[in-house]
Design goal:
Strand order of the largest sheet: 1-2
Distance between the termini: 30 Å
Shape: globular
Oligomer: single chain
Number of strands: 2
Helix content: 25-40%
Largest sheet: 2 strands, parallel
Bound molecules: NADP nicotinamide-adenine-dinucleotide phosphate
Structural class: alpha+beta
Length: 98
């Protein structure tokens, strides 16, 4: 999107934390290229939360021209559906990483 000229990006995730150095460097490099990146906390499976985030963003950036849906929660385990792990698995899948 940036190579095609996008100057405003919004990155949504439930935690919206940028803690690792590699991502910080990437964001800084985008800033130097005058690409504005907004990192916003939002659960995209929650229609109300998503609508509220989009409404809030409307006043900060131009109209949306593209969306990439990349949210996923991957759990690979032999014991995924065993009863003692089921509650933990569901909790990790549907709620934020802590
Ligand atoms: N990695 C690969 O090799 C690979 C290969 C082919 C395709 N893909 C696809 O690429 C996409 C991203 O993969 P990835 O490896 O980058 O995964 P990742 O590092 O686990 O990133 C997934 C992101 O989705 C966010 N997320 C999960 N549920 C969400 C929700 N309800 N609302 C908002 N954000 C949510 C997570 O953040 P929070 O937990 O903070 O919400 C996380 O930052 C996936 O769709 C995957 O299927 C990946």
């Amino acid at each position: 999107m940036i190579e095609k000229g996008a100057k405003h990006l919004v990155l949504l995730s439930r935690n919206a934390k940028v803690s690792d150095q590699k991502t910080k460097r990437w964001l800084k490099s985008l800033d130097q290229r005058r690409v504005k990146v907004i990192v916003e906390a939002c659960d995209v499976s929650d229609a109300r939360a998503l609508a509220a985030s989009l409404k809030k963003l409307e006043s900060h950036i131009p109209p949306f021209k593209g969306v990439i849906q990349a949210a996923m929660v991957l759990q690979v385990s032999h014991f995924l559906w065993s009863s003692e792990n089921l509650a933990d698995t569901l909790r990790r899948t549907f709620f934020s990483r802590r």
